[in-house]
Amino acid sequence: MFLTIFWKFLLLGCTSFGGPAAHIGYFRKEFVERLGWASETEYAQWVALSQIMPGPGSSQVGFALGYHRGGIVGAIAAFIGFTLPSVVLMCVFATLGSQFSEYSAFIGILGALKLMAVVVILDAIWGMGSSFCQSYRTRLIAILSMLFMLLWPLGLGSLLLIILAGVAGALWLGETQGKVFTGRMSAKVAYLALGLFSILFIVTALIHGSGWLALAAELFQAGSLVFGGGHVVLPLMSEQLADLVSTTNLLTGYAAAQAVPGPMFTLASYLGAVSAPDGQMLAWALLATLAIFLPGLLLMLVGQHFWQGLSHYSRLQGAVAAINAAVVGLLIATLLFPILPSSVGSVWQALIVVVAFVWLRWQKPAIWQLVAVFVLGGLVTALF
């Protein structure tokens, strides 16, 4: 089971460009639609939980998927598989610099993969919207959520949106039919995770100075306090790591994280690698990676346990229905800004997105086939 889950997530880790919203689309396409590892309802609630919890949202969803499929071993396999390609590439960036990013072939492929991310997000919006916005009330919640996120483009916007949607759903949809969350999170695992997180949070808050231990402590604190995903981690890191990492390295790592597949939190892998003494790059990079991801993953275990324990209450079912609709609105807002402006720059590119979206909905190709077509298209564009 470990190898199966690891392999599936490793393939996605090699091809998941486009940031957290796109990753949610990739996961849904592969594990809900194609493999049937989870239901649409379970998946939507993991996505909602990832918006409430601090930490890397898409990695938390993948972690929850892995746990659902294979317990804690499956969760670890999912995390390692999805994160490993990005960590390796960030270490390569740290070693060789970003000289190859000036090559036309690289620029062409990167532009094509940005277009592919738009297609995948559109597919996720279509599928999740069809499931969770069936009534006029849930459609209205999705529209209002989209407008809220576009008018409130701040780091805590997604957290505030989920809270507001939950309250509105409890009051407005509380008597409607809802689905009980059928997770199987062990109470023992959840309380162990909560205890470990609490101890590490207190201990790391007391560590100061320089060296690998101080770097790991600051990254753990950052991972415990970041709401809103990978892009929000930059301002917090710039404050937390001011005495440990130069602004140049921070911005270079941030740019590199956007150019590679997988989670943006592997910015920490780059910072660990460039901060390491000679001969210790890999150890520092892995420690930094674990430090920033661990708090969000532990909290996801805790959140799932309490979520499934409360989901039979009708008011909470209404809240869940509203949160699911709000997540659709959140995805639409993320697509409109910043993804579309930074990915689609011409009518021809918009046409490519439309054609690819129709192909994806009609033929339902595997993700690797979609990636292969876009990579080939990017190469052709760059060379000719």
Commentary on this structure:
With 384 residues, this protein is an all-alpha fold. The protein has one domain. 78% of the residues lie in helices and 0% in strands. The protein is built from 16 helices and no strands. The chain has helices at 2-15, 20-34, 40-52, 57-96, 104-132, 136-151, 157-172, 187-205, 212-225, 233-240, 247-259, 267-275, 281-310, 314-343, 347-363, 367-383. Helix 7 runs antiparallel to helix 14. The chain starts with a helix and ends with a helix. It is found in: Cell membrane. The chain crosses the membrane at residues 72-96, 103-128, 140-173, 185-207, 250-271, 283-307, 319-340, 346-362, 367-383. Belongs to the chromate ion transporter (CHR) (TC 2.A.51) family. Pfam families: Chromate_transp.
The largest β sheet comes out as: none
**Average of per-residue pLDDT values:** 85
The unreliable regions are: none
Secondary-structure content class: mainly alpha
| Number of structural domains | 1
Helices and strands, in N-to-C order? HHHHHHHHHHHHHHHH
Instruction: Give me the oligomer status.
Output: single chain
Number of helices in the DSSP assignment: 16
User: How would the global form be characterised?
Assistant: globular
**What's the gyration radius in Å?**
20 Å
> What level of helicity do the residues show?
over 70%
State the total count of DSSP E strands: 0
Quote the distance from N terminus to C terminus.
45 Å
How much of the sequence lies in strands comes to under 5%
Protein name: Chromate transporter, chromate ion transporter (CHR) family
Membrane topology: Multi-pass membrane protein
Pfam families: Chromate_transp (PF02417)
GO cellular component, one term: plasma membrane
